[in-house]
Amino acid sequence: MFALEKPGRSGGFPSMASVGDFNVLSSSIPATKVELSVSCRNLLDRDTFSKSDPICVLYTQAIGNKEWREFGRTEVIDNTLNPDFVRKFIMDYFFEERENLRFDFYDVDSKSPNLSKHDFLGQMFCTLGEIVGSQGSRLEKPIVGIPGKKCGTVIVTAEELGCCRDSVLMQFCANKLDKKDFFGKSDPFLVFHRSNEDGSFTICHKTEVVKNTLNPVWQAFKISVRALCNGDYDRTIKVEVYDWDRDGSHDFIGEFTTSYRELSRGQSQFNVYEVINPKKKGKKKKYVNSGTVTLLSFLIETEVSFLDYIKGGTQINFTVAIDFTASNGNPSQPTSLHYMNPYQLNAYGMALKAVGEIIQDYDSDKMFPALGFGARLPPDGRVSHEFALNGNPQNPYCHGIDGVMEAYYRSLKSVQLYGPTNFAPVINHVARYAASVKDGSQYFVLLIITDGVISDMAQTKESIVNASKLPMSIIIVGVGPAEFDAMEELDGDVVRISSRGKFAERDIVQFVPFRDYIDRSGNHVLSMARLAKDVLAEIPEQFLSYMRVRGIKPSPAPPPYTPPIHVLQTQI
C-alpha cells in the first residue's frame, strides 16, 4: 500500500500512519476500525520554482488535558497542490466517544523529520464523528491557519474496515457412520476446527448430539467466517466426528478436511466427504471409510453495522427534555440544580452538552427540538409538561447544542418551577415523530434530564412499551441527590419493562445518575466524557435491534467522490 512513495523523500519521517497510542482500557474491547483517506485541493504554493511538496500530519487530542498528540503522517508527494495521499490513517471508532482530530499540512523542504524545518500550509480541525456522520462519510472543509490567505480545501473520507463481517448458515447430515455403542447405534456429533498459521488447530464449533442413529441430520448452525477460517478462504478446516458418551469419553469415529472455498460451492458432489479413521485405515487393508458426511446447505449472510446505515444516509434526530419542577430549587440560589453560575455549567448544562455534542455530528441540519416539563408558563401560569424552551410551540427547534443551552437559560428566567414530574408527555411527543418515519431513514434519541421522583410511572411505562416498536431510544440522566430507584426499573436491563401485561419489544431506555460521574478533582471535561461514554454506548445496538426486527437494510452509500478532471495532475 505504501510502495508509491518517492524513494528517498521520506527518509527521515517515521512510518506511523496506522499506529495509534495503545490504550489499556480499550485494548480488550474490539472497536470498529475506520480507515481515513486524505486529499487536498488548491494548496498554497510555497516553492519558488516548482509546486509545494505536501505531507499531512494527523493529531488526536487527549480528553483530560486537551494535549494534542501526533497520531501519524502520510507520505510526501512531490510537486503538487492537489495531493491524494496513498498512506491511510487507521483509527478505532466508538460512537459514544468524541475524538477530536487535527490535520496539519506542510511543504517538505528537506529530509528532516522535525516539522518546524518545513513550511506550514495550514490545518483543519474536526471530530471523527463529523467525518463518519457526513454524507457518504466524506467531509470537505476549508484549510485554515494562515491569516489573509486562501489555503485550499481538504477532503477526508472514512471507510469502515471490513474485518470480514460475513457469517454462514450451514447444515450437514451423515450416512452409514461406524457403530460405536454396544447396545444401540452411535450418538454422533461434529467438531469443527480451523487451522492456525503454525499448523495447529483451534476448535471453533460443535454441533448438537443426534441420539441413536448412524444417519444423523444435524440442525443448521450459524458461524462467523472469521471464527471458521479467520477470513482466509483456502485455510484448512478439519471436521471430526464423535460418538457421544455420557461419561465424557467420546469415541472418535473419523475425520475429514475441507476449506471455506470448497464449502461455498454448496450442496454438490464436491461436498460429500469420506469420514476417515487413520488408525483403522492403517490396520485394515479392506478399510474404505467410517461413513460419509454431506453438506446440505450453505448460505452467506453479511452482518450490517451501525456505520453502514449512517453511511447510507440515516439521520439521528436528537431531542432534549428538561425537568423544571420545583424540587430543583430556586434557580437564583447557588443550592439549586438550575443555578446559573456565570463561571461554570450546572449539572443540567453539563449532561446536555456531554451527550449533545457527540450526537450532533450525526444530524445534518443540527436543528434540535428542546422541551421542558413541570413548569407554570407565562402569561396565565398554566402548568405544562411539554413546552418549547424557545417559547415557540409551532417550532421548538434550536440551532446546535449552543442554541439549546441558550433557550434553556432563557426559559429559566421566564417560567416558574412547579410540578409534578411527568415523563409520558415528552416521550409521546417524540414517539409521534418517530411513528411517522419507520423506513429506517431516521432514528430518534430523546434525552430526559431530571432531578427525581417520577409522578406518572404507569403512563410512562405504557409510553415506553409503545415506543419500543418505534425507531427511538431514551436516555435519562438523573441529577442531584435524590433516590432514583424508579428509574432503574425503567432502564429494563435487569427485567424487561412491561405495561398492562405487554412487554417492551426491545430495551430502549438507558438511565444513569449524574453523581456517579462527578470527577473528585473537579475536572468537568473528564466527568462529561465518562457520562457520554456510558449513556451513548448502548445506542448503536438499540438502533440495530430496531433495524433487524423490521428487516430494514442500509441504503447504498452515495457514489464515491471523483475529483473534476482538471485537478488530476497529482504526481506520486
TrEMBL record:
Gene3D superfamilies named among the record's database cross-references: C2 domain
Entry GO MF terms: calcium-dependent phospholipid binding; metal ion binding
Keywords: Calcium, Metal-binding, Phosphoprotein, Repeat
Keyword Phosphoprotein recorded: yes
Domain of life of the native organism: Eukaryota
GO biological process: cellular response to calcium ion
Residue ranges of domain C2 in the record: 14-141, 150-273
GO CC terms of this entry: plasma membrane
Location of the VWFA domain: 317-518
Lipoprotein is among the record's keywords: no
Signal sequence bounds: none
Pfam families: C2 (PF00168), Copine (PF07002)
Role, per record: Probable calcium-dependent phospholipid-binding protein that may play a role in calcium-mediated intracellular processes.
Family: Belongs to the copine family.
Protein name: Copine-8
Organism lineage: Eukaryota, Metazoa, Chordata, Craniata, Vertebrata
